[in-house]
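User: Second chain of the day. Same drill as before.
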Amino acid sequence: MPSRPSGKKNSLGPVAPGGYVEQGIASWYGIPYHGRRAANGEVYDMYKLTAAHRTLPFNTVVRVTSLVNGQQVDLRITDRGPFVGDRIIDLSLAGARAIDMVAAGTARVRIEIISATANPTRGNFAVQVGAFADRTNAERLRDQLLAKYKPISIQEGIGPSGKLFRLRVGSEPSEAAAQKLASQLRSEDGFETFVVRLDDMQQTSSPD
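Assistant: Same format as last time:
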């Protein structure tokens, strides 16, 4: 049986098996994020069964299965990230321990939704095109892009070395629409892009 998270109840209840499945690379995060605010406003505790995901609604419970060893763990989404390469989810230290991936640092996994607070593919989505330590640099790129794309927002967050200012383009009603915008930004403008759900919280300590 997989390890299960404790925390808030989910309003929509179970999701039909096979309704949402994602495969890719998982990583995990601990210090220096331990004790900082997560994107949902909670204090991140790396010893609890939580995770960061770019687009799933907060408090969604996902089952993460290691495709390396078959071990499983259920985790609650409380944070945003990861914003690195082809990684799809960042596990807490407790989650990483549950599927024996601490030493390796990453593992190929399958993600399935167990219960959700909102439709995972509908909401308000944007495309992240950059993250800057200096807000001035983020504003300079924003001003360049405004002639072609609107709206554009700058979200202040925390990275491993301090403040980060993340530049996000668009406000799309579905993940599919945001993915289409992301493809345009990659092909026409050469950006490395990440589709991310826009949340009410303006501060985030999501890992990078």
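The longest helix spans residues 175-189.

User: Great, on to the next one.
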